[in-house]
């Protein structure tokens, strides 16, 4: 049986967000670490931004299909959807079971170039806080 | 704060390449047109602040948050992602299902 490739840190070693994450414009480069259970850390390589926990959107939310507008797709040089990886930023509090992912503003990565952007998806009716562990349980 | 008065169809310019035009005034609502380079992202202020607040909350996770979360997910998943990666449906791939290729090219630029 063939094992499907799981995103590894070696595949996505560094991503570049030219504008940073919303509220954190001073950090443009992040190391993508982990992959265990579809969870990655975004660790800052410059600036003074914090580390973020992210989750592979398609892994936890298979019905989640964000649509990029053409200007954003051009900024990311995303002409082929196969090159896109969508990560949702996860808020993890003291209660792990209450962790939630931000489907409203995911981080979209061009896996071919490493270019990435936090895309604000207004008008697509995605929640800012979607329970993550429950989504994993229902997978 | 710089304060300017404009009538409908009048504009003002920010820097060399951003033009803001008052399109229509109707009651307490003003329609604004924004002409800016593609690298300039335009957000409604309240939307930006909401996303910023969510990011700030996410940024306060403990150093072990990712590992703790992964462990919790392994505990809830019928197909543990680390121990039994043999099923293709269980593996998180960088894949196209998250971005609709046709739509990527096909929509006008929405203000968020």
TrEMBL record, chain A:
Gene3D superfamilies: BH3618-like. Signal peptide: none annotated. Keywords: Bacterial flagellum biogenesis, Cytoplasm, Translation regulation. It comes from the Bacteria. InterPro entries: Flagellar_assembly_factor_FliW, Flagellar_assmbl_FliW_dom_sf. PANTHER family: FLAGELLAR ASSEMBLY FACTOR FLIW (PTHR39190). This is Flagellar assembly factor FliW.
TrEMBL record, chain B:
InterPro entries: CsrA, CsrA_sf. It comes from the Bacteria. Residues 75-112 are annotated as: Disordered. Coiled coil: none annotated. A translational regulator that binds mRNA to regulate translation initiation and/or mRNA stability. Usually binds in the 5'-UTR at or near the Shine-Dalgarno sequence preventing ribosome-binding, thus repressing translation. Its main target seems to be the major flagellin gene, while its function is anatagonized by FliW. Homodimer; the beta-strands of each monomer intercalate to form a hydrophobic core, while the alpha-helices form wings that extend away from the core. The keyword Coiled coil does not apply. The keyword RNA-binding applies. Its main location: cytoplasm. It is found in: Cytoplasm. Residues 99-112 have a biased composition (Basic and acidic residues). Belongs to the CsrA/RsmA family. Keywords: Bacterial flagellum biogenesis, Cytoplasm, Repressor, RNA-binding, Translation regulation. Gene3D superfamilies: Translational regulator CsrA (2.60.40.4380). NCBIfam families: csrA, PRK01712.1. It holds the Pfam family CsrA. This is Translational regulator CsrA.
